[in-house]
Amino acid sequence: MAILDFLSKPLAPEEDAEFSNWYSNIAERSNLSRDPDDPKHYYDYRAAYEAGADLDERKHLPSEFKHDLHPNRYIIGKDLEIYDSKYGKKAKLEDMIIQAFQRKDYEEGLFE
Question: Do 32 and 60 form a contact (C-beta atoms < 8 A)?
Fold first, then answer.
């Protein structure tokens, strides 16, 4: 997987200016990198922008726009079940473990 494979297609120039304003506002409100393409985001901000997404009360955008390797894609619920927050369904422990190793390999590739 290339570093930015998960990103949606580039926006048209007029949309890109609107996106830049939207992202600047999101980044300022949630203390993010000013670079929407920072590979450490693990998030497709352009797709979120196109969908009209906004931050919730926890300063999070919807999970559906997470990169498959997002650190919080798999979460453990109060019932101790594992859930895939990106797709809103139960997951298996092995899915969580495989993703953790894939993310580790991905991150090591960022800093080579």
Answer: no
For residue 39, what are the CA distances in angstroms to 4, 25, 47, 83? 7, 19, 15, 24
Check whether residue 73 and residue 52 sit in a common domain.
Answer: no
Chain segment 83-110, per-residue pLDDT in tens: 999 999 999 999 999 999 999 998 888 7
pLDDT band at 3 (very low <50, low <70, confident <90, very high): very low
**Do 34 and 21 share a structural domain?**
yes
Structural domain span for residue 57 = 10-64
Half-sphere exposure of 26 (CA within 13 A, CB side): 24
